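Much of our argument rests on the idea that a fold can be written as discrete symbols. This step matters because it turns folding into a mapping between discrete strings. The record that follows shows the chain in one-letter code together with its fold in token form.
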Amino acid sequence: MALATFDFEKPIVELEREISDLLSRENEPGISRKIKALEQKLEKTKIDIYSKLTPWQRVQVARHMARPHSLDYIQSIFTEWTEIHGDRCFADDMAVVTGFGNIGNQSVTVIGQQKGKDTKENLARNFGMMHPEGYRKAMRVMRIGERFNLPIIIFIDTPGAYPGIGAEERGQAEAIARNIRDMFTLSVPILIIIIGEGASGGALGIGVGDYILMMENAWYCVISPEGCASILWRDRAMAARSAEALKLTPPDLLKLGVIDEIVPEPLGGAHRDPVSSFQTVRSALEKRLQELVKIPGDVLIERRAQKYRKMGVFLENKPEK
């Protein structure tokens, strides 16, 4: 089944179609030369397009239905994966998966926001939007991990926390705020990777860490481009403009100190070559984990606090003398 494509990928699709047509006639004289020329043009076109993606185009890639989700990474990277369910208070939130596994020789706690691959699974997973019980479930498992001195690895991929009436009645804001507070007190390393969407408090509710990685075609911001456009211009069609202004792409966030490292993706996005993406993410996680596990718990807590205090830049106008 062919992957869905975006408008900006039309030149690539057209070249691929031409190559496919020529391949069906590859026994004709001179066809192989034409195929080779088109393949070279295709590669150049891909590089030209994907190296110059706008912020809005990166948002679109981050939302691709075929893009690997948390469980894809977890099942490919970790061995002896054992999932833990429920918050021991209200319910088991399927929008977040939690459990324990091994990466190399290191046992770890693993948490990941999980979207679905089709409509049925998305409904079951609530499109990756966590309820209050999801945040409490995540913190319960983090505390277990801390008790056994297990580093925590978190995969972020959500369009935001669930804004429904039931979620608000059960304390959505309180659950997110409590998680943010409590994650600053955990004495084990917290390694975070944003693999797709990282929207608002929905992401930050499990997003306080010692080291934050971000996939090349992911986005991370206080609000979605559409939400921002609706507020500022009363028009969701202005999403592309708001994406530019929000500085939500990895290069901007790295410059601002919000993230620590950009993880490269295969040309065209992680969905184009999931296996390669899994290997790249695993290598990045292992490298940073080896560094973090050497740091004492009290030092981790202090460094974590200082890390977030240094984020952002502001200027003050000095009064004229």
